Amino acid sequence: MLTVISAGSVYLVNEARRDSKWVIHTIEVENQINTLLLEVRRAESSARGFLLTLGPDFQSDHEKAVAAIIPALDKLTRQIGDNPAQRESIEKLSAAIETRLGQFSREMNYVKQGQPDMAAALIREAAADDSTTTINNLANAMIREEERLFRIRTSNSDRSQTLAASMTGIGSGLVVLLALISVWLVRRSAGARDDAEIRLRDANLNLEATIDERTADLREANDEIQRFAYIVSHDLRSPLVNIMGFTSELEELGKDIFRRIGELAGVPAGGPPVDVADIPLDGPDKQLSADFSEALGFIKSSIARMDRLISAILSLTREGRREFRPEKINTRDFVGTIVSSVAHQAAEAQAEIHIEPLPNIVSDRLALEQIFSNLIDNAIKYLRSGVPGEIRIRGRTKLGYAIFEISDNGRGIDPKDHQRIFDLFRRAGTQDKPGQGIGLAHVRALVRRLGGTMSVSSELNAGSTFMITLPINWNASNRNADK
Amino acid sequence: MTLPVTIIMIEDDEGHARLIERNIRRSGVNNEIVSFANGTEAMKHLFGADGSGLVQKGNALLILLDLNLPDMSGIDILRQIKENKYLKASPVVVLTTTDDSQEIKRCYELGCNVYITKPVNYENFANAIRQLGLFFSVIQVPPAT
Q: What digits encode the pLDDT tens for the residues A57-72?
């Protein structure tokens, strides 16, 4: 748009300049015609002066004038070369001037030869054939023509200048308008941006508030769960003590009853019986005591199992309440100590434990000990029978985190069980080893509380690798502050 | 025991009460055991209808107290016993499931004489009660003055 306007005004300004050049040209042509006429008159008047006075001054003046006529005529011819009408007139004009010049030279010759009468006659003849008048008429015609052109060209020039001026005016107006529009647009978009910024800030604040709220909710829920677990396990323990206690009482009672039966049946009693089933009895009585003993056995083993589970929950909740104290740990020595404490089990399982260089970290010693000893215990516990075990503990650092890997060549874990093994009371694979399904759940809870993550990669019969990622510089405050 | 000491057992769980009694008996303690399943009744017995404790004057008492009672807190009972001029000399054994260190500290500050956490598994529980019984059989208990 602006380009079009500026191109237009440049074009119009050029046009105006060309027009004014033409105007100037016309004026010049007029001037030139007048100059020519002046020279012709001067030549004529000096020739007459010479004729009357015979003064050399007039002669030289006449010669100068005659000499100036031809160049002036030539110049005029060049200047009006563009105009065919004027060219025609100038041809006539130059013919007339040539005739007059011829008359002049003849006049001058007569005067020089001392025949002024002849010259005077010639002048009369020239006056008679009106060559001077012709010249004048032609010149005047040309001047009129030029004046006409001058008028046309002046109006042309005026028009184009007006056009250029108005074009420039319109252009300037457009520029101002465009500037105003741009300013308005910029202000509008700035306003929109400000609005958006304000909304964004509000949204951020809201988000933060929401996050805080949710975090508080989660923390509350977590605390509630902890309290719940604690209370439940605590309160479950009371009746369990009764069940255990009275089962033992019942067992004692059973011994007494069956001993009495034995005595009544006349079977000689041995020493004090250790178990109901050991009391010497006959036939159906023997069967009864065996059934009694079996029932009690189931009850007791179930109670013992339940007791272990409840104790595990209790210790987990207690662990969840414990405050961590971060300290600098020489991880390699630390793991070395744990490994030497399980050396006996490792030897029994024909397992070798290799500790590779490990990065030192700042963390809670007790939690870390539980994590490593659980994982190493597991590695030893679930080796393949008949295959010498090889357990490796590796470590490396990455972006402020220490990554530890405990890998074994044991029985491995089916990928579908990878999530399950971290659940409380869940186990996977062949159930031939004692355990409650607590270890890994506990380890993962600890790793999370230490600000880390853990994962497993394993295939059945191809060993397992447990990977723990912990912050190298764990800061208790950001965690305990949550509590 | 030189005086006929009465053991007052305040324990809401009747099963526990029974087991405690049996295990105390097994350790050879034959003193009278008076058992209460809630705080209100126990308070009535200890402090009498007027609530002064005068009713127990001259009796040698040993109080076995559980902290988690349905109607009132064992800690309140402990405080009132230790603030009562007749009863304050009677030894109080707190026998409860809580092992919270704050709770333990508070009980001793209030004047509890022994604090025992009920062991989780029965073997240990029975063992602890039997040892408590042995302890009962050797300690001296002053009569309420």
A: 888 888 888 888 888 8
The pTM is what?
0.50
CA distance A305 to chain B (A): 11
In angstroms, the CA B36 to CA B34 distance is 7
Residue with tokens 């890998």: A407
Q: Where is mean pLDDT largest: A412-426, A456-470, B108-122, B131-145?
A: A456-470
pLDDT digits over A372-404, tens only?
Answer: 999 998 888 888 888 888 899 999 988 889 999
Q: Which among B13, B22, B126 is the nearest to A238, CB-wise?
A: B13
Residue B120 sits at the chain A interface (C-beta within 8 Å): yes
Residues of A in contact with B98 (CB under 8 A): 234
Q: DSSP code of A481?
A: T
B60 CB-near residues (< 8 Å, 6+ apart): B1, B3, B4, B5, B6, B90, B141, B142, B143, B144
Closest CA to A338 of A283, A394, A289, A377: A377
Which of A238, A307, A308, A313 would best serve as a mutation to test chain B binding (most B beta carbons within 10 A)?
A: A238
ipTM confidence score: 0.73
b/e burial code for range A184-194 (CB count within 10 A of at least 16 → b): eeeeeeeeeee
Query: Please, what sign has the CA dihedral across residues B129, B130, B132, B133?
Result: positive
Q: Which residue from A minimizes the CA distance to B17?
A: A242
Contact of A115 with chain B, judged by CB distance below 8 Å, is answered with: no
Residue A174, chain B, CB below 8 Å: the answer is no
Where b means 16+ CB within 10 Å and e means fewer, A250-278 reads bbeebbebbbebbeeeebeeeeebeebbe
Note whether B45 contacts A: Cβ–Cβ < 8 A: no
**What residues of B are in contact with residue A248 (Cβ under 8 Å)?**
122, 126
Dig out the tokens for A338 from the structure: 């744990």
